[in-house]
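Quick illustration for those who missed Monday's session on complexes.
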Amino acid sequence: MDIELLYLNGTFMPLAEGRVHVEDRGFQLGDGVYEVIKVMNGSLVWLEDHLARLDRNLAEVGLSAATCGHDLSEVLPRLVDRSGVGHGSVYVQVTRGCAPRDFVFPRPAHPTVLGYARSKPAPTVEEIMTGTVLHPVADLRWARCDIKSTNLLAAVLAKEEARNAGADEALFMAPDGTVREGGSSNVFAFLEGIIRTHPLDNRILGGITRRHVLEMARREGYLVEERAFTLDEVFAVSGPCEVFTASTTKDLLPVVRIGPQVVGDGRPGKVTLTLLDRLRREQALLVGLEPPPALT
Ligand code: PMP
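Prediction with 4'-deoxy-4'-aminopyridoxal-5'-phosphate bound:
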């Protein structure tokens, strides 16, 4: 049985006993950043990558020193260990802390730093092979989507709209018809023999999974381009076409439908499953597990 344990500002406590002040700027202003890190076999996967992104994000919002005194590379493994979580994720959040409500930064700030682990099974083979459905929405988020900010209202509304439309994930579209990313995932396409995804800029989050997928794909000898694609391209292509999402908690998921339109032949594609096999194998080796049976 897991223990729902919280690390809050230097103290471990039961999650249900964690208290944050009403005037915490994370609560009132969304003034904070966060990370979600995968746990497998009790180990944190690609922890250094996530902590590096957290540091970069903190610097981008003027909170560089916020995690001083919290050695997260030591605290988070301890949190997972004490929580007894085998497979799931760790949520980490850092806010500008509690201060009388005002937009400008409090000086000095007393940041809130917290983390907790929760069990959640990885997508099953059946879920993977069923595939996922995307629902295109206008991207109404702010112009710094590269920062993993706790301001998630636009994503909350988009993902709720997707669910009400019978889809699994929202697909953020630019006004010119290019695909940016999912509500909480990066999105790739395999089009005319090339694996493509939106380039890193302020319009998307630089996903950790995205980065590893690009590395794996290049290592496997695929042609890879960080160049945005449109849905017109996806549906006009005459040869094989695949689309997949990439995220920490769901790895890669084959996209079988976008809105009313079926992608390719409506089944998980070979390139997607090959890359997912590589990712599952790499992560298993990293955490000391036997590689899972191949999907392809
Ligand atoms: N884009 C957005 C908007 C996200 O919220 C996420 C998940 N945090 C991702 C992409 C995927 O990033 P990662 O692979 O680091 O989980």
